[in-house]
Amino acid sequence: MAAQAGVPGVKNCGNTCYLGSTLQALASCSSVLRHLEDALAMLSDHAPPTSTSKAAGGGGLTPQLLACLNALQPQPNFAALRSVSPRLLLDALRARAPAGALSAGLEHDAAEALELLCDLVAEDLQAAFACGAWQHLVKQASLAAVLDAAGGGPALASAAAACNGSSALLAGDGAMQQRGAEEGQPPGRAGSSLTGLSDGYNIDSTSSNTDDLVPPVPAPQPRPGSAAGRVAQTDRLLSAWQQHAWLPLRGANAHELSCVRCKHRSTVQLSPFMVLPLGIAVAPSAMLLGNVPAAVDASLEGSLAAFYGYEAVRGWHCTRCCLAASLDAAADDLPPQQQRLRQMLADGGQLVESETYSGLLAAAGLRWINKPCLAAKRTVAARLPLVLCLQLRRGFWSEEGHHVKVTGPVHFSMCLPLPRHLVPLLGHDWAGGGTPAADEPPLPPMYDLRAVIVHLGGLAGGGHYLVYRCLDATPGHGTGSRSGASWVCASDEAVRNASVQEVLKAEASILLYERRTAAA
């Protein structure tokens, strides 16, 4: 009979159950493991010989994380497994963390620790790349690729400014600027797309119109071996690194304001996230011992719908409505410049910020009129990550200043589809009850549950974290099956088998879903 497969536990190094549960959860996501392996391999393959040590993941944080995740992979001899010690990883984390974060001997929030870990690993990889392969590749790449990759983080931006002189690279002087001009790039152009968040689409952070979010037209391919071919190959390496500079948990949301009267949308503001915080619907009952029960029908889908729902904003000054009111109040014999503005309004053209138009009107002796209106504010998804980490916020402060915990189950499922009416995408106007757009994909993105982190006890600096994790490979990433999945419950060094029914009844604090690939 084959030995039963299982995973080792994680040693508690003094109130570090938050870290152990986080490591177990990350270890269940094959895309995280593969991402770290590819990133370190890329650093090693493309680093100059003199920077091999620096390219190993500066400070040892990334290799230590990868070592822990590898050690927590399912193994055949379940009974003979030894617990994994996170001591070296914890020391590396505390050495890099801000003062007061992850202090020894204190209980910490698992979601905050996960975000901090992801951010520090990203900084670690960016610093290693900036010290090694970046210096080698940046001299051979196109200006556009260098500027785009430099937006991947502060370490790369600093390296970009230092490489070949900051004026040559960022201000547009010298050989780099000449190369950019030959490629059709305007002088001194800084990349406006949100690096690493567009997932193949260029999202202009200064644009107020998102209807033009279409895949870019592919450029003609240069001949292999030519100078242009070598530049294109280097550009591809920089682009590949851009995708590896952040862990697969990184996504992005956008915040839109839409005028109810004229339907004009404001400037899109993009914000990246590692962990998506969601509220929980609570029951209309009195608080008991600092706890309040979740609503009977509380669900993950309901929390997502509330997060991505509409919110009314009164008294907002819509650029289009204010400009129209200002032009209507003026005389009919407007100067040609103002006539063009009126024509833009009639044609529904794209508008910029109101300060620009108020200055134009003031120069012509016209008064800018602020016309308050009702606007609809909503959050939309600009980029969905490979690993979707959802935090069900079970703690909040009451009006009396007490820390309250939301108890009771919140319904979630093993498979999480994200249709557009539940999680709207940037640039799509279809909402629930409407008609799908012509480019609406036939099937929504599908995510499979990989781990559930549970917090037991109170919230005020106490309690304990445990985690349920799936042992099967993610559908589309391996040979795992969607039905009959194997689950275990890990509480520090203690690991036992768990049923799917037990997992679904858990009072989840953090849920990790992994995106299913097309092959699944």
Number of strands: 15
Shape: elongated
- What is the average of the pLDDT values? 74
- Unreliable stretches: 49-59, 163-222, 430-438, 477-481
Percent of residues in helices comes to 25-40%
What characterizes the major β-sheet? 8 strands, mixed
**End-to-end span in angstroms?**
30 Å
How much of the sequence lies in strands comes to 15-25%
> Which structural class matches the secondary elements?
alpha+beta
**Compute the gyration radius: what is it?**
26 Å
| Number of domain modules | 3
The helix tally amounts to 16
Family: Belongs to the peptidase C19 family.
Region (Disordered): 175-231
Keywords: Hydrolase, Protease, Thiol protease, Ubl conjugation pathway
GO biological process, one term: proteolysis
SSE map:
Elements: H1 17-27, H2 30-46, H3 61-71, H4 87-96, H5 110-131, H6 133-137, H7 143-150, H8 154-162, H9 166-171, H10 174-182, H11 227-244, E1 251-259, E2 269-273, E3 276-278, E4 291-293, H12 300-307, E5 310-317, H13 319-329, H14 336-347, H15 354-363, E6 372-383, E7 387-392, E8 395-397, E9 403-407, E10 415-417, E11 446-456, E12 464-470, E13 487-491, E14 494-498, H16 500-504, E15 508-515
Parallel strand pairs: 3-7, 4-9
Antiparallel strand pairs: 1-2, 1-6, 5-6, 7-15, 8-9, 10-11, 11-12, 11-15, 12-13, 13-14
Helix pairs in contact: 1-3, 1-5, 2-3, 3-4, 5-8, 7-8, 7-11, 13-14, 13-15
